[in-house]
Amino acid sequence: MPRLLSLLPLFILSLANITLASNSCIAFDISWNLLAFGFSGKDYNAGTQDTWTSSGNPTDITTQGRPPFDGANTTCYLSQFTNAIYVLGADSAKPSSIYIYDATAKSWSTQDVSTDAGIDPTNFAAILDHDTNVFYAYSKGELFSLDMELLKAASSSSKSWNDVQKLAFDTDGYKPVMALAQNHIHFLGVPGLPDGSAQIFVIHFSFLQPEPQSYGNFPNTHGQVTSLFQEQGVQQEFAFIPDDGSATYVINVETNTTQTLKGPTVKDPFASYFASVDSIVQLSSSGSVAYLSYNVNSSSANSAATWNVISKLPVASTTSTGSTGNGSSSTGSSNSGSSNIGSSGSPTSTGNAQSSSTGSSNSALSIQSQGLFMAAMLLIIVVVSQST
User: Fold this and answer.
1) What dihedral do alpha carbons 357, 254, 167, 189 form, nearest 10°?
2) Which of 80, 135, 203, 388 has the fewest C-beta atoms under 10 angstroms from its C-beta?
3) Which residues are CB-contacts of 43 (< 8 A; sequence separation ≥ 6)?
4) What is the CATH number for 325?
């Protein structure tokens, strides 16, 4: 009993670290530099993959206007046309706001967003469509859209989520796993689907295909996903990592095939992932960062690849309490630095924003804090009951 009591503070501290790490997020810019946000109150540029295991330090890019990174479900998205990072869920006081990091100008701004359509800004999953730059989000069984136009700095006017449609499959208790490839949303882990299959929502036609698509051999279960970017054009592949971390599955929607690669060293159902053209990166819930090299032209190299720690970055183990003191978050249409549309040209016109869609996979983090709190309370109850 004394030993159990002595371990209690360490257990609760470990839970706190896990919760705090979920406030951080990672992303890539269009030069495939790994950006790490909310790491012990700092933001970093860790450079490209060839520098990640070097002895050098990452570049500190912390500046004014950044979010406090105190939300329970912080997620980052790359707008490849604008070289901007859109950060959702990073401000508990303003959960619907989207913070925009202009990776060219290295500046932040804050976009005001209305959720009157019914989306829950504290409990949703979202992806950002490549060609239209439109967010699509799953919340409470509904699909919502938000047109980001070509924003690399916040607009002076508020933007709004729009209700697209109720999804025509069983969403009762569904924990969304949503992957983007070829301007299609791939819903994985849908109850009743055979292994290796996805339910597909066609973005440009706002149409849910009635029959699932088979892609090979991966379990029909919950997990995390991330799309693999290309130098030009839409993503054609995405990575799926089940919650048990048993493997990394790379699904190619052009060939309808799946590569089975090594699972991450850290088996973590609360980890988040972000991919570039040649790397799949894991941010674990304890704050460590690791990567798996990926070669789009060599399945044998991919099969031999192993996960490696990115030693260049610190562990994301503490929460920032606000902006850096250099100033407050800015809102408006001001924009500094040169425009950088990227190598793939301009996005296609969306017309009505409700006719396009995009979605994401990391909704497990939105309930993480509650689950960890309950686990801590359960341990306390066990300790007290054994001591009486």
Assistant:
1) -120
2) 388
3) 35, 36, 37, 60, 61, 62, 63, 66
4) 2.120.10.80
pLDDT digits (tens, 9 = 90+) for 321-344: 444 433 333 333 333 333 333 333
What distance in Å separates the CA atoms of residue 38 and residue 48, rounded to the nearest whole number? 19
Number of domain units in the chain: 1
How far is it, in rounded angstroms, from Cα 44 to Cα 59?
5
Measured between alpha carbons, how far is 205 from 110 in angstroms, rounded to an integer? Answer: 30
112, 97 contact by CB (below 8 A)? yes
Q: Give the sheet arrangement for strand 307-309, strand by strand.
A: 272-275, 279-283, 289-293, 307-309
DSSP 19-79: HHHTT-EEEE-TT--EEEEEETTEEEE---GGGTTSSSPPEE---TT------SS-EEEEE
Range of the domain at 107: 2-387
Looking at per-residue pLDDT, the higher value among 235 and 358 belongs to 235
pLDDT digits (tens, 9 = 90+) for 218-275: 999 999 999 999 999 999 999 999 999 999 999 999 999 999 999 999 999 999 999 9
Q: What kind and span of H or E run contains 353?
A: none
Closest among 83, 78, 82, 63 to 25, alpha carbons compared: 78
Q: From CA 263, how far away is CA 242, in angstroms rounded?
A: 9
